[in-house]
Structure formats: C-alpha cells, structure tokens
Design goal:
Helix content is about 25%, strand content about 30%. It has eleven helices and 28 strands. It starts with a strand and ends with a strand. The strands form six sheets. Strands 5, 6, 19, 20, 21, 22, 23, 24, 25, 26, 27 and 28 form a twelve-stranded mixed sheet that branches. The protein has an eight-stranded parallel β-barrel with strand order 7-8-9-11-13-14-15-16, surrounded by four helices. The protein is globular.
Length: about 475
C-alpha cells in the first residue's frame, strides 16, 4: 500500500464469530483538528495478494427432523415518497413472492387533537391524506392474502412526554408516552385499527411501536413495553379486534434485554402474536440464538420486522448497487434463517426507500425501473414454498452460510447457500432418499437468478461446483 504523501493507516480485521469477516482499512485524510471548510487530498494505491482457498466443503442436513414453519419473504411498505413509491411497490408486488407486509400507522396525523374523536372524524370523511394512503396500502397487501402488521413511528404531541423530536436530558432518543394520557392513548390506537377493519376490511394481525427500545420515535422501557402489551391487548380484544401485539420490534438484535419483562409476565403472553427484532446490528450467532431460544420459550413465531444490514446506507445510496452489499445482506438473511428459524424476514423496504430497484427516479437514478442484485437475491429466496419447514443444515467451511427447508406435503426441498469465498466443490448429504435431482439457481454480479445444469441426487447426496462470491439456491421435488 502506498500514498502520495505520508499518512497514518489503520488495518483492522473483523471477527468472523460476530458475522464480520471483512478487512477494514482506515485512512487519516485530515490529521489533527479539522474545522468547517478544511480540505485535503491524497491518492492511495492498494494491492492485495493471498492464497486462494478452494478446499472442498460439505453441507450436512437432516430431512428427518423438520423444525419451525417458514412463510417466506416479507416487506415493509412505509410510504414516504408519493411519486417514486407507487411504481416501485407495484413492481415488487408483481415480481417478488411477498407473503408478509408491514405498514405505518401515521398516528400523529390520525389523532393530532386529543379532544377530537378520531374515529368519528374518520367516519364523517375527515381523514388525513397520509392516513388514507397508509390504510389503502394495508388494504392492497391484505387483498393479496398477506397478514399485515401495523407499526407506529411518530406520536401526537399530546400523547408524549417532553418536546417532540428533541434529545432528552439523559441523551436518549425519542419520547416516552405520557402515563397520565395512557387510557386516551390506548383508545386512540384501537380506534385506528377499528377504522382500518371497518372501512378498509383489514384486521391487522399485530401492532407495534417501531423500535421503542431505542426511541424511533416512541421510547419505552422493557417494563413499559410489557404493560402496554397487556393493557392495549386487552382493550383491543374488548372491542372485538383479533389484533395481537408484536413483542420487541427492537432496533436490532443486541437489545434483547428489552423483551425480558414481557417474557417473565404470564399475563402478557396471551396478547403476544410474535417476537420481532430488526437485523441492522447484533446478528452474530450467539445473539441470534438468544432470540431463537426466546421464541421457543414463548412458543410464538419469530419475525425480522426490518431486514437489511446498514441503517445509514440511505446517506450513500450508491452502496445499494455494490455487489459486496448485496452479498452481505443475503448472507445475513440466510444466517438468521438458519439459526432463528424466522417465520419471515420483512425487507426494509419494498418502496423507493432503501430500494432493491434502481432507475425511475429512485435516489435520483434515471431510466426505467430495473432490478438490482439485491432484488434477484430476494426473488431467489422466494423460490422456497410458503409453509416449508426448516431442516437442520450445517457446513464445514467458514466462508459458507446455508439454510435448508422441506415442504413435506408437496415433497419440495430447498437449500440456500451463500459463498463468501472462492469457487469450490460442494458435497451435500442428508437429502431425502426419494429426491433424484435438484434445479440450481445462482445470483452474483454477473448472474440474475440464472438457472444452471440440473444436479443429480443419489442416495441423499449431491455434488456440484459452487460459484465464487455469490448466492446459490437448490430446489428439488421428491414427488
């Protein structure tokens, strides 16, 4: 590594155990104390050389021990751009196998004035445009047969403690709910869900405050979260709603302590429909296992309410087109599926925000809407039939992540493999004896879910060449 002028350089190796296998290089461009207006320039030349690991790998699965059931890919549909969102949503719904949906409750627009009954106002035709659009979005997803989660971000000022959108004295984000207004809060939230059901024919399967462990934008303690589950859950049930509460919906997997008060409170359990975290951070195997164990303890499905890898990526949207980003994202998904046996991972988002499409004005890109490598990853993941069961699957190579599924009724078996290294030979064992062949699909910078030569399966074993730095799916039927 060379530079035009002397500079401090830090090279840091990531920790594979924490899901970070990258080598990171930090360049000191502006040494000392920089101030506004300062500029600096340097040119770096980097050369890398290392032995290429092409050792064969073995994947072992057990088709005789099905685990939890998998529903497939989900999506977030929080509307933010009335111009670019609709065509992106239409494209994704037409071309991806989406089985779960999550939409926003624009709570602050639904009930801005505490002294006005929002349900009566809505029934008389006085409905804010943002609320109407959000409810129509839920209706569109519901008509496609999806269960729909409703999540609230921004509270109305009357329902919050302190000044909205300001940092608190303790440095925490978001606003706590005003305990004095709690009954009004519960009635307000329930009224929204009632109107969604009565006027749009959508009964939300679950409700949550988005990332309330962090305060985006309602902030709760674990104890407050447990109390809301009990109180709001009971009130919704008293009004005839089947809507349950989403436990957690955490900002990332690291904050698992947030869900413990509700887990330890038996009175909350009957109102909890599923467990949820967002996959932005903390997805090392050890932490993911905590969530898997919590779902087992509660005997409820586990959802990844927001799926992706970098919450700040929207600040540099060109990164969404980078092959490494696409590979890291799908590797994280396959790792989560393998360890957590999630019911669904809901992509953030299937709109123009963090979009898996480019063109059409998305982040200012020109031309017609077109799929990216991230889109093809999702489409390939969607090859697994809804209702498949997880099958235990492990690989003996650290650069390979895998997850397996079996649709027992229809005899369809799916194996998803992410290779973060070089091309190598793969042997798969433990496939059903009745399986004779499998189709193979590959997505990488050069291939968009390209179908390859059919792979033979003999006595539960298959052998093939796994392409470098890509995502491969094998799908086969034993019937």
């Amino acid at each position: 590594m060379t530079a035009d002028t002397p500079v401090d350089i830090i090279v840091q190796q990531g920790f594979a155990w924490f899901g970070d296998r990258d080598l990171r290089i930090y360049f000191n461009i502006l040494p000392g104390t920089a101030k506004s207006g300062d500029t600096a320039e340097n040119t770096f030349t980097i050369k890398a050389d290392a032995p290429i690991d092409t050792t064969p790998a073995r994947i072992t699965l057990d088709a005789s021990r099905p685990g939890r059931q998998y529903d497939g890919l989900g999506g977030n549909f929080r509307l933010q751009d009335p111009v670019t969102d609709p065509p992106v949503i239409e494209y994704c719904l037409d071309n991806l196998n989406v089985t779960w949906g999550r939409v926003e409750m624009p709570w602050s627009a639904w009930h801005p004035d505490e002294h006005v009954d929002p349900l009566k106002a809505a029934q008389s035709g006085n409905l804010d445009r943002r609320v109407e659009s959000a409810m129509q979005m839920a209706q569109q997803l519901s008509r496609k047969g999806m269960p729909v989660i409703v999540s609230a971000w921004y509270p109305p000022a009357w329902a919050a403690k302190g000044e909205l959108f300001s940092r608190n004295d303790d440095g925490l984000r978001g606003n706590a709910l005003n305990p004095v207004k709690m009954q009004s809060i519960i009635r307000s939230l329930t009224a929204y869900l009632l109107h969604l059901k009565q006027a749009y024919g959508v009964e939300a399967v679950m409700f949550s405050f988005n990332e309330s462990d962090l305060g985006i934008n309602v902030r709760q303690t674990g104890e407050e979260h447990a109390d809301l589950i009990k109180n709001l859950g009971a009130f919704m049930a008293s009004k005839g709603l089947a809507t349950q509460m989403l436990l957690g919906d955490n900002s990332d997997a690291n904050t698992y302590h947030f869900i413990q008060p509700a887990i330890q409170d038996p009175a909350a359990h009957k109102y909890i429909g599923a467990l949820s975290f967002h996959s932005w951070r903390g997805c090392d195997p050890w932490t993911l296992q905590i969530w898997a164990d919590a779902a087992d303890e509660m005997n409820v499905p586990l959802l990844v309410g927001e799926g992706s890898i970098n919450a700040a990526a929207h600040r540099y949207p060109d990164v969404f087109l980078e092959p490494y980003y696409a590979l890291d994202e799908i590797e994280r998904y396959i790792r989560i599926l393998s360890i957590c046996q999630a019911k669904s991972i809901l992509q953030w988002q299937l709109t123009s925000d963090y979009s898996v499409l480019t063109g059409g004005g998305v982040y200012g890109t020109e031309g017609s809407l077109r799929p990216t490598q991230r889109f093809w990853n999702l489409k390939q993941l969607g090859l697994t039939p809804k209702g498949s069961f997880y099958l235990p699957a492990t690989c003996d190579h650290p650069e390979i992540t895998c997850a397996a599924f079996g649709d027992i009724d229809d005899g369809i078996y799916s194996l998803h493999i992410v290779n973060d290294g070089a091309e190598r030979q793969i042997t798969v064992t433990g496939l059903p004896q009745s399986l004779k062949s499998m189709d193979i699909y590959t997505t990488n910078p050069d291939k968009d879910m390209k179908k390859g030569k059919r792979i033979k399966v003999k006595e539960g074993m298959a052998e093939f060449t796994l392409e470098a730095a890509g995502y491969t799916a094998l799908i086969g039927s034993s019937i």
